[in-house]
Amino acid sequence: MTEEKAASPAPEAATKAQPPPPAAASSPTPEPAQPEPAHIQADDEEPDETDVDSSWGEDAVSSTASISSSILDYRKENGRTYHAYRDGKYLIPNDEQENERLDFQHHLWYLTLDGRLGFAPPAHPEAKFAGRVLDVGTGTGIWAIDFGDEHPDAHVIGVDLSPIQPSFTPPNVHFQIDDLEDEWTFSQPFDYIHVRAMSGSIKNWSVFLERCIENLKPGGWLEVQEPGRPIAEDDTFPPDCALAKATALFAEGLAAAGSPLLDVFTLKDLFNGAGFVSYDEKRAYWPSNPWPKDKKLKEIAMWSNTNLSAGVEGFLMAVATRFLGWSLPEVTVLSAQARADLNDRRIHAYWPVISAFAQKPE
């Protein structure tokens, strides 16, 4: 990942306005703000009409409170399981298939962030950091565990709606089951709050960032790492292709559920509005498959493809069947078609990715 102000991680710097990304006409959500174009160069060796590769994904491959039986009584729906605590709040499964995808995604972030867990100063691998850390939406807990290993003097708390974290963790890492859209009740403020891939899970980002700054020590850091919506800089990603339809359906379903996708290009305004200072951000790209010529982007693309191919059906299932009237077979068919598009090197789609970080004033 590279600094937006200094350089783009793509082969050439962006210089002109980005055309609007494709979106289905049925989506009620507003168009997101537009990034500058990446100008990612496609591999010179163009695939022929039959080059729709289905094998890219195959190449990559303690809670502080007791957990009641009701929290472990997961919702079972359409062959997947979902969290029981605050049932219906988070619309992506919590089963083994999804947990494996989350670990794929963690490695994808690790590659994207150049082998780091974050860009805020507390996350520097060589920082002698001994403060309190909160990992919001910790999932399988892999980020919290890695941070605890990397900074053994820090105290890391991971919070999630699902008790899917391992029992054996570093002694400085602990997990809690809670909903951080409620009032926060932590006994002490934090030095660093980490938020990753929570777009579509938080109803009001302005309120959420206000709670973050209220629960930081003066001079403490917040970091938000999020992918935006997929785009392309040519005509290979039309609105009527299955992948574009799937992403539009996902956005429409989340909006209907009351937790719309975050427009990642508004993060600076949201941070400033909450009172943060010293804002900075770094941007990168997740190609849909190894269509770029750049060697590093090819590696990132392989993991991006694995992550998305494994997750597309889980992303769509609950939002489409609960809020948009779709049937299980309809979701299954669209998911299969979207996976085919993800593996089609003729489609030059990519997800812009932002890591935004700032401080609470001293």
Blueprint of the fold:
Blueprint: E1 2-3, H1 56-59, H2 69-72, E2 75-77, E3 80-82, H3 96-112, E4 132-136, H4 142-150, E5 155-160, E6 173-177, E7 190-196, H5 205-214, E8 216-227, H6 242-257, H7 267-274, E9 277-287, H8 295-323, H9 328-342, E10 350-359
Parallel strand pairs: 4-5, 4-7, 5-6, 7-8
Antiparallel strand pairs: 1-9, 2-3, 8-10, 9-10
Helix pairs in contact: 3-8, 5-7, 6-8, 6-9, 8-9
Pfam families: Methyltransf_23
InterPro entries: SAM-dependent_MTases_sf
Biased composition (Low complexity): 7-17
Fold and architecture overview:
The chain is an alpha/beta fold and 362 residues long. It has nine helices and ten strands. The strands form two sheets. The protein has an eight-stranded mixed beta sheet with strand order 1-9-10-8-7-4-5-6. Strands 2-3 form a two-stranded antiparallel sheet. Strand 2 and strand 3 (80-82) form a beta hairpin. Helix 3 (96-112) packs antiparallel against helix 8 (295-323). It is globular. The two termini are 28 Å apart. The relative contact order is 0.20. Mean pLDDT is 86; it is low at 2-29 and 49-66. Residues 1-62 are annotated as: Disordered. Residues 7-17 have a biased composition (Low complexity). InterPro entries: SAM-dependent_MTases_sf.
Structural key phrases:
362 residues; alpha/beta; eight-stranded mixed β-sheet; 10 strands
Brief summary of the model shown:
This is Methyltransferase domain-containing protein. Residues 43-52 have a biased composition (Acidic residues). The protein is α/β, with parallel strands linked by helices and 362 residues long.
